[in-house]
Amino acid sequence: MTAASLLRRLLLSVPTLFGVLIINFVLLRVVPGDPIAMMIGPGATPEDIQNLRQIYGLDKSIYQQFLLYLGDFLSGDLGTSISMRQDVVELIVGRLPVTLELALVAIAISLVGIVGLGITASIWKGRWPEVLIDVFSGFVQAVPDFLWALLFILIFGVLWASMPIFGRMDLAVEFDPLTQFYLFESLFRGDLVVFRSILMHILLPALSLALPLIAIGARLLKSSINESMAQDYVQLARVKGFSHFRIVVSQAFPNALIPTVTLTGVQMTFLIGGTVLVERIFGYPGLGNMAIDAVINRDLPLIQGIVLTFAVMFIVLNILIDMTYAFLNPRLRHD
Amino acid sequence: MEIIATKGLKKCLVATVAVAATYLTAPSGVIAGDKDSLTIAYHVSVPAWDPTTGLSSVNPQLQSIYKSVFDQYIDQNPDLSFKPGLLTDWGWNEDRTKVHMTVRSGAKWQDGKTITAQDVVWNLNRASDPASGNPVAGFIWASVGDFEVNGNKITGTVKSYTADYFKWMAFLTGYLIPPHYYEEVGKEGFEKKPMGSGPYMVDKFERGSYVRLKANPYYWGGKPAIENVVFKFVTNPASRIAEIESGSSDLTLNIPFEEYDRLKDKSGLAGVTTPVSDIAMIFFNDVEPFLDANVRKAAVHAVDRNALVDRLLKGYGVPLHTLEAPEYTAYDPSIKVAYDPELAKKLLAKSGFSPSNPVELTIQTTRGYLPKDYEIIQAIVGMWRKVGIEAKIDVYEVAKHYELRAQDTLAPAAFYNWGNSVGDPQDSTGHAMFGPSPHSVWDTDDLDGMIGPLWGERDESRRIAGWKKVSRYIADNAYVLPLYQQVQPVIHRSGLAFTPYVSNFILPHTMGW
User: Fold this and answer.
1) Number of independent structural domains in chain A
2) pTM of the complete model
3) Complex ipTM, two decimals?
């Protein structure tokens, strides 16, 4: 991907974001659920209700509300959360790193799993490891990420209580972070006690998110490697006397990566979407967990902010995938 | 050579995994189980800390946490009766045109500063100010004003009489925050580091995850027995069960009754169930077919409340016939509506309906929001079908319920849970059934004519008698279908002295090991 094409992609993402902004705004005001109706206490009078509408700017027409929202958005203001009474940008900035860290660990686990299982299945093609990996992939694919989360809670939280099943770190561990990237920060600082606590807490949610991706990715990688194994350059490597292991790893694997990266990239968007439920189940204080609270409370400014953030994350992720694709396939670098 | 390398790699991998597993699964600092601390796996998280304004201030489920950090003007005993909070004395004058209050001497904010009568007045004025965002500013808090301070005594003038004014001082939004601190840090600063005068101080708050509280050394009620309290916000019931079962938390609540029955018999755990101030009910709307009294009465007589409680709730519920629970001031045990399906059939027959020619209607319910909500409605629909009422179930989110109720556009029948932790009839039967209230669904002149004068009734015994009469009238005319009083299941670690509250509060300062 050249700088020009990257710039083109970035420019194209502007109308995409604007579309998300409009749809998001209109949809939230059309679907049932009025935040003020949820707020009024037993003794509230019509004047109380009208007053609350005024305070939250919901007494204006949708058109007026949108213009105000757009003006604020362009100046970097996403409004104030109705339920949390805090600046939406501040809330998102506080939670986004938590979700990003979880997603990154999940992606790292996925990549290790995909490569490990994909290569293993190809090396032992037609033998029991391949069968085992196929069965594993089929089973894992059939179970959604949130069910894995519940299963892990049952296994590691109850039956064999060996892993933490709630939150981000042990409450007894003192840590005064500078950023919200606790895991990376504790590692960078060399604070291994904190690092261990955070790692332990992130493992199960990350594994719940990673498993479905591993299943899909490993299957695809295996079949891509198998396809590559029929190519002429592999035959040439065999003639040269390369071992089967070396042919798979050094010849077929790099060429099999392109379709795997494409599909895995698309699946990563599902992984990020999956953080919503998984964070909720593990009480992980990320953006997804906050999104559910925002929806329950019909916190319109906060929902809008979170949806926009997810949209930006998906756009960035897609651009990154395209860049990786170009990196892996030299022919695309000059398109 | 390659085989040797592979074997070496395998050994290295196994060793790495073993070391990592040992390192990661080694025990680390644990809070639950420590006698100086208490960890509660709580079912909701705290979105905002100001207990007097905004959405959170009227969320009954947050009151336990708010009550741990902030004082109320007036406090409550476990049985809903009232006791002094920051006010040690309160009342009306003879003709109920003035109120008087006495502020507790020596009480302090959590920064050690003395709580003055001026502080209390600042809070009362703020609560009544529409700009503050108090959701009940107009009806409750603005009903008394022009406060005057004399030492620790406060007097105020009644602007519009409301009999439950003082009860609201122990209810939603009836909390005090320190004026000097709030004015210093502002609204956002207060949300980041809240301060009150309650038994615990906020030590650390991780939004969406937990709040850690420390005993308040200045608390007027004496330092709590448990020094450190953590409310973990575990919103998923399965995770709450795992928390208590694994020993990560000392107490949890709001779990399915089947799980409660299993856990209470487990070694090291104990269980408590308490009927609480929440009433499961079905709103009837004054639209067809419920404008026909025969259909309404049949719909009520056809429902076997005992069967619902026994079979679906495993006995964890108290069947009710009015919107007043036994602990409420205007509860009248003599009001009963018989379960009589034969009578229901006869009533429907009078209006030309039968099981072969049923009257059709829609009933709305949430699914999973309340214990067995959908299953309860399914059972009721089955009971109705037997007598000649064919109901279609419409499942919606509770947010939609609130919106439709505020617009008075609910279906003819809608399942709901009405909470009233102060037990005054105005706050259950009153707001639920008085037509002009934004919360009522049934809206007819006959009932409004009965309820209307009670709002201004200054004689307490006449007022309560009046509400009992209203409850009987509602039951006779089947304007609503009260079902049962909810029961709160609490599981805690054995050895924890837990005090259950009818108001559904989980109050760490009342507990001890």
Assistant:
1) 1
2) 0.86
3) 0.80
